[in-house]
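Entry 14. Structure prediction run on the chain below.
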Amino acid sequence: MKGSMNMSYDSSNLTTPDIKWLGVRPSDLDRFNIPEQCRLAMTDEDVKTGKKMLEEDFIRANPEWVAELELMLKKREKAEIQALSSFGFQYLSQVYLPLKLQEGDWI
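Output returned:
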């Protein structure tokens, strides 16, 4: 076990039960036309982690999170937020985030 998962067992004071997913989600890849060259193939470890996340109570309690993770596992691709820079240096701050916030597009 590594990283955040390891820390989750360290202290209940470190949890954020009302966390929101605002960043690039699997459904955003097509919605925002993220270029193929900016998409990353999921590694075997990514797939394993995704499947393990789907077993978590917090994830299962949030159908939108389940749908996003299932889509990611089905397509076996992901993207880093830096992929948005393919549209220009200020796309993230001037287009993507304002649109997401305006639409309340977080889960």
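The chain has a mean pLDDT of 89.
Filed with the rest of this week's runs.
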